[in-house]
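for the recovery benchmark. tokens below, seq after
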């Protein structure tokens, strides 16, 4: 902890005859403290990003917003957005869309549910918007994708 580090620095300073003898261990201790704090910050950031991912994964069918996630985790929206992008390489909205599209694709292939039901289970309130996002993501409408997959699996 920092208190013991300070005590070590004080001991080093008091046990040296020359100031120069003190500088090298002092620099090393300061460097160690800074490196440790940076590692702890990185771990905290990664843990927070994982919490965000876990929350999104478990609540895909619900209305999810950066605001609601930030409130739940007691951080600001800006901090959450910057941290998530830094750790994952994508925005929170991009992650939500990616996971919802993966879920929709899975439901289209593994079930015979209608598109409206799949839309709702994937977190989209209107089938029209869902269809637009799906086509934007995969290049096919949900119905086309389902048909294409069935044709390929029959071969």
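predicted aa per position
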């Amino acid at each position: 902890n920092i208190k013991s580090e300070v005590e070590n620095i004080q001991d080093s300073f008091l046990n040296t005859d020359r100031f120069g003898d003190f500088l090298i261990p002092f620099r090393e201790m300061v460097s160690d403290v800074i490196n440790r704090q940076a590692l702890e910050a990185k771990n905290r950031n990664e843990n927070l990003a994982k919490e965000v991912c876990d929350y999104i994964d478990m609540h895909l069918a619900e209305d999810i917003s950066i605001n609601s996630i930030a409130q739940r985790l007691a951080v600001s929206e800006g901090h959450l957005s910057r941290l998530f992008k830094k750790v994952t390489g994508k925005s929170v909205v991009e992650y939500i869309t990616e996971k919802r599209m993966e879920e929709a694709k899975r439901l289209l292939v593994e079930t015979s549910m209608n598109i409206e039901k799949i839309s709702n289970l994937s977190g989209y309130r209107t089938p029209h918007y869902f269809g637009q996002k799906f086509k934007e993501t995969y290049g096919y409408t949900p119905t086309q994708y389902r048909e294409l997959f069935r044709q390929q699996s029959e071969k």
